[in-house]
Predict the structure.
Amino acid sequence: MLIHLENKEQFKEVVSKGVTLVDFFATWCGPCRMLTPELEKLAEKDQTINVLKVDVDEFQELAAQFNVRAVPTLVLFKDGQVVTTGSGFRPLASLEQFVSQAK
């Protein structure tokens, strides 16, 4: 499921259970705009994971908490714990491989 973060409480709730891929992005970022359709395909293809989009301009505190220095930055969670992080555009196959680290 693809979710757009609305508040910090929602962040904690979503990442606390199961596998969640968090996309820290900015609306002005070209690679971020290229990544969104790939994330949508991933969320549609694999219903067992959550894909959470976090706008770094809206949620600067969260971005700082996870040391987001560039966008897009992906943070993979399993049951509330960070499994791995990465940055930059990734095609669907690369996203699937990235997420498999938490399964």
Notes: The mean pLDDT is 97. Residues 8 and 62 are 8 Å apart (CA to CA). The beta strands are 2-4, 19-25, 49-55, 73-78, 81-87.
